[in-house]
Amino acid sequence: MVLALPLVATSLFGGVLFQLVDLKLISGMGDQAVTAVVVTNQSLRQFIFMLVMGASFGTQGLIARSVGEGKPDRADHVAGQTLVMGLILSCFLAAAGLAFPGELLGMMNVSPEVLAVGIPYVRLVLLLNFGFVFVNIFNAILNGAGDTATPFLIAVVQTLLALFGEWCLIYGNLGMPALGIRGVALGIGVGQVGSIILISRVLFGGSSRVHVRSHHLRPHPAVMKSVLVLAWPPALQMLGTFLVTVFFIRIMGNFGDTAQTAYSIGLRLGMLAPMICFPLAGAVSTLVGQALGSNNVSRAWRSIRVGLGVHIVLMWTLGTALYFFRETLLRIFTDDPEVIAIGSRMLVWQAASFFPLAFSFVFFRALQGAGDVIVPMLVTVMNALLLTLPLGIYLAETRNMGPDGLFIAQFISTMTGTVITGAWLATGRWTRAHSTRTATDSLEKTSERP
Q1: Other CB atoms within 10 Å distance of the CB of residue 328
Q2: Phi-psi region for residue 109, left (φ > 0), alpha (ψ -120 to 50) or beta?
Q3: Which pTM does this prediction carry?
Q4: What's the pLDDT tens digit per position in 129-167?
């Protein structure tokens, strides 16, 4: 609970509170603006998130193992190299946003009206991605070291600054220019600038459990490779889920702007409970990594059991609440009866998926903390390619079920992926943690430098 409560509080501020208020601010600009922002966030911005989270998982696993083995210098070095990789990724994404904003949003099969509204937002989101990238990396660094309180404090500052910036810049409050959809991206950027300043003071000032120094920022390919060894499987695993979301957004475009708007709002609302609960699984990941680093396998198993107990209670409660209050939530953001009707049916299946997700989050993060990342990646990717996408197309188009076919396909694939991943976890092979141990062993000569 010491690890988990600050993680949940971080997600409540940086996730739930921000998502709800942000969506309410955006909804005042009309359905086209809502669709443009949410489609961008759930496709292009989500793609960035998947890449960063992959690197974050690798970083968190290595730092947790290093802390468990009593090697803080190695943890510092891994943190520095991850920051360098984040900077390289951010520069690449900024260049893509500057050169191809229309082409990137056009890939989502949005209407010409939504495309025209959304291009400025896409450009600014990608140009200002640095804060988004570094905040997630920073959280992984400190979470791996067992410090979850500092990221919470920074999330509070970032969220309040971002929402205040959006309120001022979208509608021109307090004498600021009314920038509309551009104000959404710039408001978020205000919060990110504040968070980067605080992050720099924490990581480079020596006030945290991880202290990055200048020599840690000199590129070391061997250390980066060690991070990437653990990063690419979870990144590819999350990209499998991302692929389904993007493809379904495109299919929704075939059913009209109303369906795509409903799907966009439903995605935001359906993410609220996972935003609260997924950080709890992050605490399980840290504890499993540190337990295996100290050769305490029984403690790693106990961490998983406790994590499952907490997740089941919380996710099932939130799933029940979402089911009963789904229309009330939708009416906060739209008054279109058709959007509410489609969104309501979507949230029924989203609420049902919370029941298997209570297990899936813990399974995935426990395996990631142990360094066993290949099998979960294969399960997720194959599940997406061989089940979710074909079943969604079959139900939505061949069986003429429309959007409901996509909702059902996502629920079935969630159940299937959870069962298979749980069966692999039950074998206990993850306790050997070959990939993490190999990666940390390769850092011995490169990370501990004067």
Answers
A1: 8
A2: left
A3: 0.69
A4: 888 888 888 888 887 787 877 888 888 888 899 999 999
Closest CA to 282 of 388, 147, 435: 147
Which range, 156-170, 360-374, 435-449, has the best average confidence (pLDDT)?
Answer: 156-170
Of 86, 68, 97, the closest CA to residue 138 belongs to 86
Inter-residue long-range contacts of 296-303, CB under 8 Å, 24+ positions, other chains counted: 297/431, 300/366, 300/370, 300/431, 303/366
Distance CA 427, CA 449 (A): 39
Considering only CA atoms, give the Rg of the chain. 21
Those residues whose C-beta lies under 8 Å from the C-beta of residue 238, and which sit 6 or more positions away, are 50, 53, 54, 380
Residue type, 425: L
Domain residues of the chain, as ranges? 4-447
Instruction: Write out the two tokens for 232.
Output: 């690419």
Give 397's Cβ-side CA count (13 Å radius): 13
CA-closest candidate to residue 371, choices 428, 434, 304, 303: 434
Residue partners of 42: CB distance under 8 A and separation at least 6: 245, 246, 249, 264, 267
Alpha-carbon distance 60 to 151, whole Å?
14
Amino acid 301 reads W
Q: What are the φ and ψ backbone dihedral angles of 110, each rounded to 5 degrees?
A: -85, 165
With vertex at residue 81, the alpha carbon angle to CA 80 and CA 83, rounded to the nearest 5 degrees, is 65
Q: Residue 318: how many CA atoms within 13 Å on its side-chain side?
A: 23
**Residue 98 in contact with residue 122, Cβ under 8 Å?**
no
Each as own residue / partner, the long-range contacts of residues 295-302 (CB below 8 Å, 24 or more positions apart, any chain) are: 297/431, 300/366, 300/370, 300/431
pLDDT at 359: 94
CA distance 269 to 343: 10
Burial classification of residue 285, based on how many CB atoms lie within 10 Å of its CB (0-12 exposed, 13-18 middle, 19 or more buried): buried
Tens-place pLDDT, residues 343-366: 999 999 999 999 999 999 899 889
φ/ψ (deg, to 5) at 325: -115, 20
pLDDT tens digits, residue range 249-263? 888 888 887 888 888
In total, the chain counts a number of residues equal to 450
Average pLDDT of the residues in 401-427: 93
DSSP letters of 394-416? Answer: IIIIIS--THHHHHHHHHHHHHH
* pLDDT of 119: 92
> 272 with 20: CB under 8 angstroms?
yes
